[in-house]
Write a structure and sequence with these properties.
Layout (H helix, E strand, L loop, with lengths): L5 E10 L2 E11 L4 E5 L6 H8 L7 E7 L5 E6 L10 E4 L11 H11 L6 H10 L15 H17 L6 E5 L7 H16 L3 E5 L3 H4 L4 E6 L2 E5 L16 H18 L2 H20 L1 H4 L4 H17 L3 H7 L3 H9 L3 H8 L6 H12 L15 H23 L11 H4 L1 H17 L10 H21 L4
Parallel strand pairs: 3-8, 3-9, 6-7, 7-8
Antiparallel strand pairs: 1-2, 1-4, 4-5, 9-10
């Protein structure tokens, strides 16, 4: 008898304080088409997303069969999380940032799924789905129906072109589609079935539910299964893309969006430039009136301000549930990756030197080598920025944001900043030395970075669910 590919064992799932599914046991077998059916609000989407690891069960566990035959805990009530192997998914919403172009979304979905497709392959599929003329358009410019088509196609394309058996999850895929698109969807599902892929659909569309090998009806927080499973071969030829590759794809995605639309850079630059203008209007004499510590504080302040600004990566991940799409593929690694790639990398160094140019005049006695070394504390500001982004990502993912005391962790970042001010003071006064110790510039900079790293680790390890 074939082993189940996905298993729910005694799963109770809550959405907020409401229990949606209670003590659910379910097995999904390789190669079958399964439909979740029920009235609106019955829990179809919740059950599908629980299988994808997006909703941790209050009780029970979700297990998956990997390509090497071992079992993987996708999620459980003890807090363990792992991405589902071989997954492609279309959420009920877009699952994409609206700054992405159509072809970018389809190429990204294929790459993340571990399927290397040429532009010609993707353009051919787009032509079949009447999307070719919009290939370079941003998703924001498309109608809701076209965006739905792109979302579903991004889940179908990798599996249709893959030599490995995959798990395809579709949440209300036919919603908002015209008759021609629905026919394409039905034929694609039949093709996936013939190739041995596992297809899981949450739908109220009877034309789709009648295609299922088995139906799972959800009512009153419980399920009833209709039909017998017909497992097909799950002999994968290729190993799905590993988590490290997905992290790299996520970083490329975030960087490409920032290049196309540098919202993050602009958001951080505006308040820091205002600070520099204020420093310039105050004058170097007043800035230095309290000594070199005051000078160092104002020198690093514009760079520090950039670390406190909410990063654009948070908005991009919340848009169209883009973050949930990534989380389904990456598991918990998304927050550490997002905290690093979404931090302020470009601004601290030029802002520090710009502030130095404004502050340094003949009225301030600075060490002649200081300007050659202030890049070190400026770079350490980046460590504070990574920690700050990690905290803000944690807070944005908490279910009860109003009660999120985690945001108070931002205040702690003043500590490593003041240590950097001390280090900069020593550099301005005596120049740089390579000696280590808590009374040397290098030692203080290392201490500041270590504290920032500790705060970052705490932020990315605290679960938000």
């Amino acid at each position: 008898m074939a082993r189940p590919l996905l298993t729910l064992v005694g799963c109770t799932v809550l959405r907020g304080s409401k229990t949606v599914l209670r003590e659910i046991d379910l097995e999904i077998f390789p190669g079958e088409v399964v439909c979740f059916v029920g009235h609106n609000g019955s829990g179809k989407s919740t059950l599908l997303e629980t299988l994808a690891g997006l909703h941790p069960p209050r009780h029970g566990e979700v297990k998956a069969l990997s390509t090497n035959g071992s079992e993987v805990i996708v999620s459980d009530s003890e807090g363990r999380r792992a991405p589902l192997p071989g997954l492609t998914i279309a959420l009920q919403s877009d699952g994409a940032c609206l700054d992405e172009s159509v072809i970018m979304r389809l190429k990204l979905a294929s790459t993340v799924a571990g399927v290397d497709l040429s532009d010609q392959d993707i353009l051919k599929m787009m032509a079949e789905w009447s999307l070719l003329h919009r290939s370079n358009d941003r998703l924001a410019t498309l109608s809701n129906g076209l965006r739905r088509r792109v979302s579903v196609l991004s889940a179908l394309v990798p599996a249709l072109k893959s030599e490995s058996q995959m798990i395809v999850m579709l949440d209300e895929p036919s919603e908002g589609m015209d008759k021609a698109s629905k026919e394409l969807l039905r034929s694609s599902i039949e093709e996936l079935r013939s190739q041995g892929h596992t297809v899981i659909i949450a739908t109220h569309d009877q034309d789709l539910s009648c295609m299922a090998d088995r139906s799972v009806e959800i009512e009153n927080q419980t399920i009833s299964v209709i039909g017998e499973h017909s497992a097909r071969s799950h002999g994968a030829k290729d190993t799905p893309i590993n988590s490290g590759d997905k992290v790299m794809e996520f970083c490329r995605w975030a960087a490409s969006l920032e290049r196309k639309n540098p919202i993050d850079t602009i958001k951080r630059l505006i308040p820091s430039m205002i600070a520099i203008l204020l420093i310039g209007s105050i004058g170097s004499g007043i800035v230095s009136s309290d000594g070199l510590f005051s000078t160092s504080f104002y020198l690093l302040l514009p760079a520090f301000i950039t670390t406190m600004v909410q990063p654009a990566i948070i908005d991009r991940l919340s848009e169209g549930r883009s973050g949930d799409w990534w989380r389904a593929h990456m598991g918990r690694s998304i927050r550490p990756a997002a905290s690093i790639v979404g931090s302020s990398w470009l601004l601290p160094l030029p802002l520090t030197y710009l502030a130095y140019t404004i502050i340094s005049t003949d009225s301030i006695d600075l060490h002649p080598e200081a300007k050659f070394w202030i890049w070190l504390p400026a770079l350490a500001i980046i460590d504070i920025s990574v920690a700050s982004t990690g905290i803000q990502l944690l807070v944005s993912g908490l279910k009860r944001r109003g009660a999120a005391v985690a945001s108070l962790m931002m205040v702690i970042l003043v500590w490593p900043f003041l240590i950097l001010v001390d280090a900069t003071t020593l550099i301005l006064q005596d120049g740089m030395t390579m000696e280590l110790g808590l009374e040397t510039p290098l030692g203080l900079i290392i201490a500041s970075s270590a504290i920032s790293a500790g705060i970052w680790a705490s932020a990315v390890l605290i679960p938000s669910d």
